[in-house]
Amino acid sequence: MDIAYIPSPSTGVIHLGPLPLRGYAFCIIIGVFVAVWYGNRRWVARGGKAGTVADIAVWAVPFGLVGGRLYHVITDYQLYFSEGENWVDAFKIWEGGLGIWGAIALGAVGAWIGCRRRGIPLPAWADALAPGIAFAQAIGRWGNWFNQELYGRETDVPWALRITEGANREAGLYHPTFLYESLWCIGVALLVIWADRRFKLGHGRAFALYVAAYCAGRGWIEYMRVDEAHDILGVRLNVWTSIVVFVLAVTYIVISSRKRPGREEIVEPAAVAKSTSDEAATPSGDGEPEDGAGTAKSETEPEPEPDTAPESADAAESPGKA
């Protein structure tokens, strides 16, 4: 008898009249808002302007969604292009299927475009957003719970996930890998926040730490999953991807810390220019002009001479009169 387990929702969509509210999409949207909100706080704390993170996210988020979907469709093409499958399903992003690797890669392209338009360094923006992205992933993983997907091997642990019978899945109790990854992402976010405060990470190193820490957890979590996936030498493709990306991220941290130690002093030149102009426009002291213009005349200032002109112009012009 199963005493304890995590139940799965009976449906992943709630209909508000004709409008379907899908749990997967809802989790992604909440995650994006959390990432932008927290990233904005970190950006302003580093000297940037409020709203800059959101402006750049307008570029990064659509690119990231497209990249994440492309990675999923390419690496799991058999789900959409094999015999008996409908290729149109490749566009149904609300049914699940986003690859974080593609989302980060193409999202970075969108962020680069946004940063270039604003004249700010991409690494600094990425550092500010790094823990927010991890929090967003932690929230987004609950979308897999709504869709009853990406679970692990069968288990009888008290926190097992109950999966119901459905297309391409068998009823039973499985490891809730979505929950493991969600908790891991929260830990990654807290790690980046602590390390950034402790070591003043800059020039993209906070973002690289997020990538490395996430890959470390994704490797063992991916190994537990039982959904169909391509493998190389008996190891799932995403495990190999985690290993490669982890090595690249650590290498970047080491090389960057040697070549560009410390943290950027200026992350948004426009914010500094505005602050400087505001200070210049603010009167000093109690509001009196600094150069003394408009002050009272000095007590020692000489008064103008009295008018000594003749009372009558005729007297000056007629010397012959008595």
Automatic annotation (TrEMBL):
Membrane spanning residue stretches: 23-40, 52-74, 94-115, 178-195, 207-225, 237-255
Compositional bias of kind Low complexity: 309-322
PROSITE patterns (alphabetical): LGT
Known function: Catalyzes the transfer of the diacylglyceryl group from phosphatidylglycerol to the sulfhydryl group of the N-terminal cysteine of a prolipoprotein, the first step in the formation of mature lipoproteins.
Keyword terms: Cell membrane, Membrane, Transferase, Transmembrane, Transmembrane helix
UniProt subcellular location: Cell membrane
Major subcellular location class: membrane
GO molecular function: phosphatidylglycerol-prolipoprotein diacylglyceryl transferase activity
Keyword hit for Transferase: yes
Gene name of the encoded protein: lgt
Family assignment from sequence similarity: Belongs to the Lgt family.
The protein's Enzyme Commission number: 2.5.1.145
Residue ranges, annotated region (Disordered): 266-322
Cytoplasm listed as a keyword: no
Annotated pathway: Protein modification; lipoprotein biosynthesis (diacylglyceryl transfer)
Protein name: Phosphatidylglycerol--prolipoprotein diacylglyceryl transferase
Organism placement in taxonomy: Bacteria, Bacillati, Actinomycetota, Actinomycetes, Kitasatosporales
Residues at which a 1,2-diacyl-sn-glycero-3-phospho-(1'-sn-glycerol) binds: 141
InterPro entries (alphabetical): Lgt
A Pfam family of this chain: LGT
Membrane topology, record value: Multi-pass membrane protein
